[in-house]
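User: Please fill in residues for this 402-position structure.
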């Protein structure tokens, strides 16, 4: 038989699914795939349940229910001062994952070049390649993941169509600085390039930092498509509601891509997310302070075990260098080992690099209940034979509440 699509054949099953399955098989605490272990706000869940029962269960409009498009427009103004027309500049998708693919479909033709920043989220490169585009990879390096400006500039050329930017960034927890964003904007203008901005962690940003959408910078409004995810903003990752804000000309094409992918997205969940986006400032503040406390707790525990923990300014994740533990093997072996033998799963950071990669970092998700994080730390401490008192402290102590 003729061989099927060789690009899909080559990429295999996503690391998140692989590690979650391994965690389940070994009864491990899953600090791998990024999802909270408690559901998001009850009023949003109730709104979804109510919205199942009032007779609006048929296909919603292609670009999303009006309530949600309006709510996304209002959120753009409220959080970032970006003025948006909900009728022509918002497209609701089935998760940010679909939004990323739809944006790339809207912009790329075979032969175009796309600039991607490593380490990168696992759908970016395969989708660009499936569309016949060529990726130019620019690498950020630990421990600070600073933007290498000369290398970024060198990646742009006459064929460059778009840059894909993820901030706050998975897996590094990096938040691009205002200065870095200015530099990126100058390159986009100089080379007449678009940006697809994966901003799923826009509200998961810590220590008083502010998320700055590239789109909010001067002259960027017409060059950027910015993507949000209700899964992250409302701790409901299974819902898969994404939303794209883009200039009308581009939004039309993103909608055309969406019409060929899923066509529409469940209306009930959309209506509940619309309610969620109107939540008060206290909700958004608590989301990030709660997560920051969990980050600090897990980071402290991992340091007590001997990991070198890198800073994380946003997202669900911290990356940790396991070299000091003396493990004989690379990051994939390490993550497998701790899942099978310590009962804690993590993601090997090399999975975020298509080619050569650093091999001594593991990514841990901290979006879990304190008791679960505590148990994970205890298990790792016991496995690596660390005095548990050094590694484990109470959650309230780590958060400075005691
Ligand atoms: N982009 C990044 C950087 C992510 O980490 C994720 C993880 N879920 C997504 C996109 C996909 O978001 P969604 O679940 O809304 O499809
Ligand atoms: N974004 C999540 C992560 O990075 C996983 C999403 C997925 O499993 N595709 O862990």
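Assistant: Residues filled in for all 402 positions:
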């Amino acid at each position: 038989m003729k061989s099927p699509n060789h690009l899909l054949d080559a990429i295999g099953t996503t690391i998140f699914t692989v590690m979650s399955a391994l965690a389940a098989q070994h009864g491990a605490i899953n600090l791998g795939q990024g999802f909270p272990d408690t559901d998001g706000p009850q009023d949003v869940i109730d709104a979804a349940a109510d919205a199942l029962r009032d007779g609006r269960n048929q296909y919603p409009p292609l670009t999303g229910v009006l309530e949600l498009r309006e709510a996304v427009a209002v959120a753009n103004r409220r959080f970032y001062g970006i003025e948006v027309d909900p009728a022509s500049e918002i497209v609701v998708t089935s998760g940010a994952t679909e939004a990323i693919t739809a944006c790339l479909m809207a912009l790329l033709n075979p032969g175009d070049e796309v600039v991607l920043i490593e380490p990168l989220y696992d759908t970016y490169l395969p989708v660009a390649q499936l569309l016949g585009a060529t990726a130019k990879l620019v690498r950020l390096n630990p421990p600070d993941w600073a933007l290498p400006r000369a290398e970024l500039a060198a990646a742009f050329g006459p064929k460059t169509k778009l840059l894909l930017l993820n901030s706050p960034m998975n897996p590094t927890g990096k938040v691009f600085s205002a200065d870095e964003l200015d530099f990126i904007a100058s390159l986009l203008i100089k080379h007449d390039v678009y940006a697809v901005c994966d901003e799923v962690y826009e509200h998961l940003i810590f220590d008083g930092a502010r998320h700055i959408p590239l789109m909010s910078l001067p002259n960027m409004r017409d060059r950027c498509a910015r993507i949000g995810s209700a899964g992250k903003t409302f701790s409901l990752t299974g819902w898969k509601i994404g939303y794209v804000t883009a200039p009308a000309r581009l939004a039309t094409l993103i909608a055309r891509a969406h019409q060929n992918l899923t066509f529409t997205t469940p209306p009930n969940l959309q209506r509940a997310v619309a309610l969620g986006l109107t939540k008060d400032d206290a909700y958004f503040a608590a989301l990030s302070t709660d997560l920051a406390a969990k980050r600090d707790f897990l980071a402290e525990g991992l340091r007590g075990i001997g990991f070198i923990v890198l800073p994380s300014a946003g997202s669900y994740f911290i990356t940790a260098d396991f070299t000091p533990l003396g493990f004989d093997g690379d990051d994939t072996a390490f993550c497998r080992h701790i899942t099978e033998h310590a009962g804690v799963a993590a993601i090997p950071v090399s999975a975020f690099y298509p080619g050569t990669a650093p091999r001594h970092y593991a990514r841990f998700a901290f979006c879990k209940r304190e008791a679960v994080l505590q148990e994970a730390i205890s298990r790792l401490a016991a496995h690596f034979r660390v005095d548990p008192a050094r590694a484990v402290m109470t959650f309230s102590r780590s958060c400075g509440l005691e």
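For context: The domain at 42-280 is CATH 3.40.640.10 (Aspartate Aminotransferase; domain 2).
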